Amino acid sequence: MSSALHRLRPSRRSNEALDAPLNQVEEGAMIGAAATKLEELFDILRIDHRNDHNTRDTPRRVARMLVEELMAGRYAEPPEITEFDNVQRFNELIVIGPITLRSTCAHHLMPIYGEAYIGVLPAADGKIIGLSKYDRIVEHFGARLQIQEELVRQIGEFIFARTAPQGLAVRISAVHMCRTQRGVRGSHQGRMVTSAYFGSLADDPARKEEFLRECLALGKAP
Ligand SMILES: [Zn+2]
Asked: What's the 145 CA to ligand 1 centre distance in angstroms?
């Protein structure tokens, strides 16, 4: 094993980041090694990727897709967050969404897609972050092999730690293609909804209700 790959040990859970982001050399080594293994897999599945014009470059393409896109949130830095002081001491609920969610299921390596909603109850002396950053954060944690229950918590814990709001809510409504393309072959309308609450929102039924109402209204907005 090359020394560049060696640094990647010890292994991590599928939705945990490495201790340090990969540099370009390490990323290239990982893609190369993964492509070799994918070629082996194609051989086992008896797909002639050496001669078949459809699959000739597929092992390398898939290796790149895994490292640079579908799992990039394990190998890259989390997004930089621009923080603003809460100068107006705004202390009402802010709800952002729908934010497009794309992820991959840790159990079957199938796509998960849907929407995320984030509710923030800012602290008077806390920080507010730029709106587009919420999309980036969802994208970052979605780019890992995930289960939805842990994904909502990871997104929430990251925002909570960086901005110290009074309260925070994260809700995801998503379709799991491991349920639509295999197994029960369920409906594409069938969704899974998970929510996670932090700070004062965890035990404030009225605010939770307000958050859910806003999510529903935003989901219906044109
Ligand atoms: Zn699955």
From this structure: 10
Residue 79 contacts by C-beta under 8 Å, 6 or more apart in sequence?
Answer: 133, 136, 137, 139, 140
Residues with CB under 5 A from ligand 1 (ion): 105, 107-108, 178
What confidence tens digit (pLDDT) does each residue in 52-64 have? 999 999 999 999 9
Between the CA of 79 and the centroid of ligand 1 the distance, in Å, is: 26
3-state secondary structure of 100: strand
In degrees, to the nearest 5, what angle opens at C-alpha 193 toward C-alphas 172 and 196? Answer: 60
CA nearest 163: which of 76, 95, 85, 73? 85
Q: How many CB atoms lie within 10 A of CB 61?
A: 13
Helix axis angle, 132-142 to 148-163, nearest 10°: 140
Which domains are present in the chain? 3-75 (1.10.286.10), 83-220 (3.30.1130.10)
pLDDT, tens only, 125-182: 888 898 899 999 999 999 999 999 999 999 999 999 999 999 999 999 999 999 999 9
Residue recorded with tokens 């587009």: 132
CA of 64 to the centre of ligand 1 (A): 22
Whether the bond between 205 and the residue before it is cis, its omega within 30 degrees of 0, is no
